[in-house]
Design a protein that fits this description.
The complex is a heterodimer of chains A (195) and B (346). Chain A has 195 residues and is mainly alpha-helical. Chain A has helices spanning 2-57, 64-81, 88-109, 113-117, 119-154, 159-162, 178-181. The termini of chain A are far apart. In chain B, strands 1-2-4-3 form a four-stranded mixed beta sheet, with helices on both faces. Chain B has 346 residues and is mainly alpha-helical. Classes of the chains: A mainly alpha (195), B mainly alpha (346).
Amino acid sequence: MGTILFLVVVVVLILWVVGAYNGLVALKNQTVNAWKQIDVQLKRRHDLIPNLVNTVKGSMNFEKDTLDAVVSARSRAMQSGAGGGMNVKETAAAEGALTGALGKLFVVMERYPDLKSSQNVRDLQEELSSTENKIAFARQFYNDTATNYNTKQQQFPTNLVAGLARAEIAELWEIEDKAERAVPTVDLSLQKPQG
Amino acid sequence: MTAGLNLFEQQARNRRLTVAWMVLFILFFAWLGFGGDLALYLAAAARTEGQVPYRFPWIGAVVTLIAAITAWVSWRKGPQQVLWSTGAREVTTPQSFEEKQFVDVVEEMAVATGLPKPKVYVIDDPDPNAFATGRDPPSACIAATTGLLAILNREELQAVVAHEMGHVRNFDVRLMTLIAALVGVIVVLSNGMGRMLRGGGGRGVGGLLGGRERKASGPLLIAAAVVFVLWVITLILAPFISRIMAMAVSRDREYLADATGAELTRNPAALVSALQKIETHEAPTTHIKEGAAHLCIADPLGRDVNTREGRLADLLATHPPMAMRITRLKGMAYQQLKAAGPAPTA
């Protein structure tokens, strides 16, 4: 009787270790995959920027500084991502700078009504703001997945097999830019919006 | 009370409620299927001693089989039928700026969920509405009316698409297809049994229950009669009861999709203003039939019950009252602001 009980306990323990190990490996791969999704969107943005710069260059000749800032921020961001690895902090900083430069360009573009009303520019701007959103959502998804992974490997009793599964804390993508961090104002009044 | 919860607490609460409703639903269905068998078994046991001749629960087995087949067929064929019946056309290359924006927003939400990008459909209808369908996330489709694309701004459209993506991620299409199939089988069963009891079948059942045999023993026969009467009564009420339960699940999934949408965009306020715009435009969406109603952002039939609050509205609507949804979303927005610290100037 005693041996049977002992064997049952051992089998249950082994099953649990296998389950916990596989769970951690799955989460790790999900985190890596989520990071790759950010990469895809960042590449898309890098590809779109020359297009935008060329289109607006003619009508915005005297805003050369703003355009130069975007171009140089882009090349710096591309360099930091060239390694291919998961260098979260460096990529986050370079891409944050690019987001800031692009934001400034969009603000400046507001001052040129005929530029804004051009169909081509309108399409490009939609394309870019959609890409900006995708980057933000991919980042959010990565942070959620990474947090999930981190929590699992720190929580008892999964933390006991964390070493076995070679689990390491995944770095979150923090927002460096102060403008990005600002809390948006939310209208909680009961008024209906003008539609 | 529920308005004070943040979006993750609301999601957990809605999931628990759905599980509770599903358990009730299955128990109810099991009673409808096997209750008759129980009555027949008791009647048979009352008449004989030793081995009971009624060994296999025929009624329950047949009913379960029919339900399984119906559910499978509508799960395989349903999504295409829904799209076809609404006259939706797939957007592969956007024809206008609005369509381009719609496709972009769907792509954004797919990125936010980490799921494959659903197919995008547009319905030519001036009334603002949207729905999601598909068997599972890889085969999901999201459709919106041209009216919706016209009145919402980018953020609001994003919020509505996030709500639909919430339905996709939460497997609501699968759940609601299963429930619709169960309700359908229950209605057919109820009608069929009713006809049988009114007609010649009643005599046969009466013969089974009646104590014409010599060895009929009292208490068991009474139990059989009681079970039988209860079973018939529930059968008669079954279409009504099962619809009420189905609608309860549907409303839970709406709240859940609202909360999931808020999780994806982290912007509950945008869905609030989108819902308010849709509500002021509310008119029947002629292109969307009843079959897809439970997956829409707002009830396409524009029934009064969805806008009123109260007992009857609570029971029969596919969607919760707009005011309640808005209140809960505002609660989420408030919790978000509180978590973010004191607002600069709000």
